[in-house]
Amino acid sequence: xxxxxxxxxxxxxxxxxxxxxxxxxxxxxxxxxxxxxxxxxxxxxxxxxxxxxxxxxxxxxxxxxxxxxxxxxxxxxxxxxxxxxxxxxxxxxxxxxxxxxxxxxxxxxxxxxxxxxxxxxxxxxxxxxxxxxxxxxxxxxxxxxxxxxxxxxxxxxxxxxxxxxxxxxxxxxxxxxxxxxxxxxxxxxxxxxxxxxxxxxxxxxxxxxxxxxxxxxxxxxxxxxxxxxxxxxxxxxxxxxxxxxxxxxxxxxxxxxxxxxxxxxxxxxxxxxxxxxxxxxxxxxxxxxxxxxxxxxxxxxxxxxxxxxxxxxxxxxxxxxxxxxxxxxxxxxxxxx
Length: 337
Ligand code: IMP
Ligand code: MG
Prior knowledge:
The longest helix has 15 residues, at about 305-320. The mean pLDDT is about 95. By secondary structure, the protein is an alpha/beta fold. Helix 4 packs across helix 5, helix 8 crosses helix 10 and helix 9 (about 265-275) packs across helix 11 (about 305-320). It has helices at about 20-25, 80-95, 100, 115-120, 130-140, 160-165, 200-205, 235-245, 265-275, 285-290, 305-320; strands spanning about 5-10, 35-40, 45-50, 55-60, 70-75, 80, 100-105, 110, 155-160, 170-175, 215-220, 225, 260-265, 280, 295, 300-305, 325-330.
């Protein structure tokens, strides 16, 4: 059928852990979506979602399974069959019918036990030790093994081309990003990055014509967090306070996240490069609780002192500098709603 594929994307604009899972889960309430697709990364991600009052953490499985939406792990991802089966089991135990809704593209490269061992010895980057970097390295070195070659009866294998382009009904897919602009292999703070394309270009690489990308939802927090080996957090008790109040500990590894104030320069850059139309700024309530309204602009620390001045400043700078942005929404942490 000659219908045009529609693709919306949820993209992280900071260093991950912005609340992409929460936004994806919220958007998937719309009955318009036929698919939810992960287009990059692996089990390194940790998406925390509150569904019917219950906390659910996903790693590589698209959030769509929670709402019973057909969910695909796209060819831009690398997959450990062992970790995938564990995650399927965990979600099934939580009452989610994963097996019926989850499909893995045959082109996904496999994270082997050797990749897991190798990444487990990392100390330089501070990886999540899920074998992600070594698997992508072997993919690009043309030594990799692909899911389609596995013949694993526990994994539903699909072809993303058929999913997106050979359907009898119009496909409207929500692409759920993992990691973020600051961790992107090309645009992030190399070498302290992950090994995939976290930006919207990664969506296109998963079989989506550029013209099909409709709305890009950018997600960030009212302050920044980062987990990894580089020093990120400046001196000052306020940052520890934000970590404690904001419960900033890794969903995958439990590591404490380093904290800093919002960087407007980086946020504008990330929004422009991703063509963000709707920008969501999560966890504004955490800054309320610590009553600090600071950010960086033009590399300088600016103290806006109160919430309305902070939100006005951020909104104005974004609307002034990012041609695609229509809306800027300040949101609150799920446990604050
Ligand atoms: P890797 O992706 O496990 O190779 O880790 C590379 C860098 O990205 C490390 O600093 C990780 O902590 C970070 N990272 C990877 N995935 C995530 C995530 O989902 N949230 C936050 N940081 C991540
Ligand atoms: Mg996370």
